[in-house]
Amino acid sequence: MRILGIDPGIRNTGWGVVTLDGTRLVHLANGVIQPDPKAADAARLSTIAQGLSQVIETHRPDAAAIEEIFVARSASSALKLGMARGVAMMQCAHAGLDVAEIAARQVKKSVVGTGRADKAQVTAMVTRLLSVKAVNADAADALAIAIAALHRGPQAQDPGAAGGLSQAIEAALAREAGGGTGRRGGGP
């Protein structure tokens, strides 16, 4: 299953496409849509919509995942985040994609192992798991969202498939550590 992860924002909308090949996570693409910061909100949203439409057309994901809305620092920030999120969800729906909504804490827990991980930890783990450096932190977050969606997606109902993703994470850590057992620390 090919998943498009989306980290929406009116300034930067990160995106990443990931698939699971057996027990291996595979990076397909990532990037960021950056509307003109001086443009009106409507023009920025249009840029996000057009950018996501191109990503969907180019990479043909089977489904999409987006971070659940969270309480922002201000009402204005929450409103702008909600607008970007709505445009992203609309573009996915227009393309016929199911959209999973995943809480930020669940994304962090799926990728790093703790719901309290910071952005640097998420970015570092995405780099380890996919053996690729994301375009920026927003793209890394989008890749993390895609990984979390694969972790909890329909195949997560199949114990073998969910175990497959866990094995993929363990294998990526082992590769980085130079071990061959696929377990952290190389122990039993």
Number of strands: 5
Q: First CA to last CA: what distance? A: 31 Å
Output the number of helix runs. Answer: 6
User: How is the biggest beta sheet arranged?
Assistant: 5 strands, mixed
Element pattern in H and E: EEEHEHEHHHH
The 3D shape can be described as globular
Please, what is the average pLDDT?
A: 84
Query: What's the Cα radius of gyration?
Result: 16 Å
Share of residues in helices: 40-55%
* Poorly predicted runs of 5 or more residues: 155-169, 179-188
Structural class: alpha/beta
Q: Spatial order of the strands in the main sheet?
A: 3-2-1-4-5
Proportion of beta-strand residues: 15-25%
Question: TL;DR?
Answer:
The chain is of the alpha/beta class. It has six helices and five strands, in the order βββαβαβαααα.
Summarize this structure as a short list of keywords or feature phrases.
188 residues, alpha/beta
Can you characterise this structure?
- There is one protein chain.
- The chain has helices spanning 41-59, 75-94, 104-112, 119-130, 137-152, 159-177; strands at 2-7, 13-21, 24-33, 63-67, 98-102.
- The two termini are 31 Å apart.
- It is globular, with a radius of gyration of 16 Å.
- It contains 6 helices and 5 strands, in the order E-E-E-H-E-H-E-H-H-H-H.
- The model is unreliable at 155-169 and 179-188 (pLDDT under 50).
- Helix 1 runs parallel beside helix 2 (75-94), helix 3 (104-112) packs across helix 5 and helix 4 (119-130) packs across helix 5 (137-152).
- Strand 1 (2-7) and strand 2 (13-21) form a beta hairpin.
- The chain has a 5-stranded mixed sheet, sandwiched between helices.
- By secondary structure, the protein is an alpha/beta fold.
- The protein is 51% helix and 19% strand.
